[in-house]
Design brief:
Mean pLDDT: 83
CATH topology of the largest domain: Rossmann fold
Structural class: alpha/beta
Order of helices and strands: HHEHEHEHEHEHHEHEHHH
CATH architecture of the largest domain: 3-Layer(aba) Sandwich
Low-confidence stretches: 273-277, 292-306, 315-320
Distance between the termini: 62 Å
Strand order of the largest sheet: 3-4-2-5-6-1-7
Largest sheet: 7 strands, parallel
């Protein structure tokens, strides 16, 4: 198996960018995925965040798209050829920055579109023409409906963090977006887990994919320490309070299984522990703008979460 980037026979422009970023030896997901993508095969990859997935799919896609590279200023000469979909604006922004660094010495253009900001600057970038488009599903559909971008020449599509996209509820949006793409394309799906839902998605949209797993199926990251406490329902709040105090935790995420339970827990932390850091009540990520409604206060600019924010505000009034 190839271990060094110098063994990949990448173009001098891409090799130069890789060298400047200090890359020498490939991570396991890169070593397994890059040669397969260079062959034009579909990939179903199981890899956790932080394993080098972005380079694993970006470098071979850029290499294969160099045949379309040109210095023309005409937008028609720069159609979207690679589409990368991610669940949140933060991830989309991170991946877009990496793509720009990898392609900095080529004439391939890239941009990113996500919700929570004005569409006009994004529209202007799309109208100039880009080969690589990084996007969140909700905002991409907004641009498609506004006819700001055309996807009929897409040759590569990447579904990154696919499990998170399904958790957020993006499956209908993904299905709509994929219906706009040519059937003859290379599709890459990356997920931290291979749940039954992910496998069904892969079976529907990938053609004879090569399965790559760099970690045990459905495994938790090795950096995560897990503890299990068996308690009665009535004891959960007391145990939570005890754990937070004994460990001296100043910041913590607490996940519950309902919005009502979340509001009750936030209200309880306000009056039972006035010396603790403030408790924030939050909902899931907004599907349309792909931003989290979590804030240091329950206020939010996301109109899709206005009702949830109102509930949060009522839960927080007990602090005054």
């Amino acid at each position: 198996m190839t271990q060094s980037f110098s063994e990949l026979s990448l173009s001098p422009a891409i090799e130069r960018a890789v060298a400047e970023m200090g890359y020498a030896t490939m991570t396991p997901i890169q070593a397994q995925a890059i040669p397969v993508v260079l062959q034009g095969r579909d990939v179903m990859g199981a890899a956790q965040t932080g394993t080098g997935k972005t380079a694993a799919f970006t470098l071979p896609l850029l290499q294969r798209m160099l045949k379309h590279e040109n210095a023309s200023t005409s937008p028609a000469r720069h159609p979207v050829r690679a589409l990368v979909l991610l669940p949140t604006r933060e991830l989309a922004d991170q991946v877009a920055e990496q793509v720009k660094l990898y392609a900095k010495y080529t004439n391939l253009r890239s941009t990113v579109v996500f919700g929570g900001m004005d569409m006009k600057p994004q529209t202007a970038e799309l109208k100039k023409g880009v080969e690589v488009l990084v996007a969140t599903p909700g905002r991409l559909l907004d641009h498609i409906e506004a006819k700001n971008c055309v996807l009929n020449q897409v040759e590569y599509v990447v579904l990154d963090e696919a499990d998170r996209m399904l958790d957020i509820g993006f499956l209908p949006d993904l299905q709509r977006i994929l219906s706009y793409l040519p059937k003859q394309r290379t599709t890459l799906l990356f997920s931290a887990t291979f749940s039954p839902e992910i496998k069904r998605l892969a079976n529907s949209y990938l053609q004879d994919p090569v399965t790559i797993e760099v970690a045990r199926s459905n495994a938790t990251a090795s950096t995560v320490e897990q503890h299990f406490y068996r308690v009665e329902d009535d004891d959960k709040r007391g145990i939570l309070k005890q754990i937070l105090r004994e460990r001296g935790l100043k910041q913590a995420f607490v996940f519950v299984n309902s919005k009502l339970g979340c509001a009750r827990l936030a209200r309880w932390t306000c009056w039972s522990a006035p010396t603790w850091p403030r408790a924030a009540w939050t909902s899931r990520t907004c599907r349309r703008c792909s931003t989290s409604t979590s804030r240091s206060t329950p206020r939010t600019t996301c109109t899709a979460s206005a009702a949830l924010a109102a509930q949060a505000l009522r839960a927080w009034r007990c602090r005054s």
